[in-house]
Amino acid sequence: MKIIRLAPDESGNIDWPLLSASRKSVVTVGAFDGVHRGHRAVVKRTVALAKQFDALSVVIMFEPRPAFVHGYAKAHGNDELPADGSVADTDQLTGVGQRLRALNELGVDYVIIVKYTLAFADKSFRFFLGQLVGRLGMRTLVLGKDASMGAGRAGTIDKIETLALATGMFELVVVDDEGRGRTRVPQPIVPTMPATRGPVSDPRAAMPKAERRAWSKATNAREVRDWSSTNVRFLLANGDIEDANDILGDLHGVEGTVVHGEERGRQLGFPTANVAEPVDGYLPVDGVYAGWLVDLGPAADYDERVERSKREASDGISHQYDGGGIEARLAMTSPLRWPAAISIGTKPTFNDQSGRHERVLEAYALTGDDSDWLDLYGHRVRVEFEQFIRPQIEFDGPDALKAELADNVRTVHDLLG
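Request: output the structure for the sequence above.
Response:
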């Protein structure tokens, strides 16, 4: 898989590269946040059609997420996002690195990462598609059934289909990527920690029709695809890991660098890997979870590889994707993967005396040897979530907390081995 990074000029124009003088391309477009089963259905169809037509499969991936860019603009007088990256997208399910790994596994030929700006968004869908035909040699465009693009999202499926038929310059293939149909999600999504021990089920599933209608009205819920990033975000914000993972088609995970914490876990006999903020990915609601801790190697190596990729893929020049061997580390049989008891929260048992109330992500790895302390300081790790165990609660003291932690570890062992 080859990667190209493109940034529009101040007017929103992009200097699209010429991918091939002899081969056409099959293209799909989107943010692909989470690369869930709906996204995978569209990408798989793109790859299959490209092979059928001896064409190049091309994914145009927007970064940052369009919803984040427009949300920031709405709250800041229609300003563009700061170019220094100082404003983090905490609602993003997966960062660029995670999305690239997934697209590489799906066999994509090219991923073109386009920096999404307001000026670029203001271009009409007709102009945008004309550029793809003229420069990328697009013969086929593959989209999900409710996709839209261009200024004001005016480029609906019906209008794109009309354009394709009228010009004969490309064909449109629409993929039914809705999964189980439609559902409704509150706006905004407010994380709600379950009050009881897990596992957690979809809070909407048990509602009678009348109750669901009243709930939808009270929460200003809007209709979305069941297989959608928005629905995954809602499920994670309610601790429903299993339903979120079902939509993702994989385990939801976040990534970051291990740093020194207060070392309270070590004092209690449960030394944890503390992951620095901001993490790469969407943190589920506060609580204790069963999941996995994966060592991805020194963070400095990862950061250097990312920066090299940005340099090599800039200005429309393609370079070969380099995962740095992370795929092997992520394998379920990897010796660098351990079952883990994962905690997200503000440490209510100690925060009054410590004066620290920030949200913390930490994971205690079940290594199989109680004396085997994992020194992962300065390493990039991936924390994956399998199931919600319990809410964050305040204990009477260290002894009560220690007993509960031991019980949590037994639960993880029973679930994951």
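The mean pLDDT is 92.
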